[in-house]
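Progress narrative, work stream C.
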Amino acid sequence: MTTSTTPRRQLDLPGQTHVAEGPNDHTGMYVMHHALRRDLAAFAAATEATPLDDARTWEALAARWGRFATTLHHHHTAEDSLYWPVLEQAVGERGTPADRLEVAAMSEEHEGIDPLVTACTDAFGAVAGHPCDSHRAALAIRLAGLREVLDQHLEHEEGVVLPLVQRVMTAEEFLGVERAIGRSYGTREIPFVIAWAMHGLPREAREAMFAVAGTPYRVLHALFRRRFERAEAVAFRYVRPAG
């Protein structure tokens, strides 16, 4: 195995807390984190702004939340099964005992996030099934709680774990992880995930993602972007669009 020392230009997106400089290209991770933060902000705004008597929009929001929850779960599962084990091995070879604790904390934090996502899912269902001020308030509280905990997790990952990746993972290890995670998405999931991840990104970031993911990613985005945006316009009709 060889370790590249040539630094790559890394993305610095809205909401991102740290840029992990180094040879491994974290474009995909930063784009995913941007989408997670963007969605939680949009769901919080929609919860406040959507009229309780607009049943169609609440149903669309609940369905869209389901896609968010599934995508977040897949992202964390892929990290736990495909990313962190490779990083842990690299830490064993080139890192420190303190580094190992940081890797272990990632999966532990995922376990703490899962119940909060489930609580939000139940709260969306409650508003859709019986729209009232108390159900809306409960949903807002649960979204705020999840947003706080997920923000802390993403900050930890961006500020500590991704710099650790740059320090201990070889180019071969890193590319192997990236490819394995790419293969973990089912054929039916891919169009949504691509359109979802690219939504609202600054142009420079979109081009960086296309450069990393290749022509098929660009083509699928062109094919499915408008369908995704039409659905977004229904679910978040009372929220200023992300872009």
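Work stream C, second folded protein:
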Amino acid sequence: MGSHMIAEIEADYHPTDDEPFMNERQREYFRAKLNSWKDDILKESRETLQHLQDDNQNHPDLADRASSETDRAIELRARDRQRKLISKIEAALDRIEDGTYGYCEETGEPISLKRLDARPIATLSLEAQERHERRERVYRDD
């Protein structure tokens, strides 16, 4: 078994357009970025849960309870968003493993590094994304 070497990423490394797109370093960079984002979300949702539990212990007062119901609704929505985000992050990590990460689902073209850096879970290039949004606007009747 050859030991699986993980490329070490220098702290100041940033993917640039003058290296091969999605080379080992870039994949490692985005993998690390996605993982630390996921960890942050998980940590945050643990704190949210803790907060909900602490909150629950002490509400004799009805007005308090009403406001805590609203809080709970908000927190549950936030948790739902977190869950969706985590599954998107995990999907992105899978794409890094299978070599499809960073390529537009629709056109197969590379998504710009700037866009991936800002939104590492992007699956569409900016152009494809804009086409989608235009299409959705057409079908949405507001």
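The chain has four helices and no strands. No further action is required on this item.
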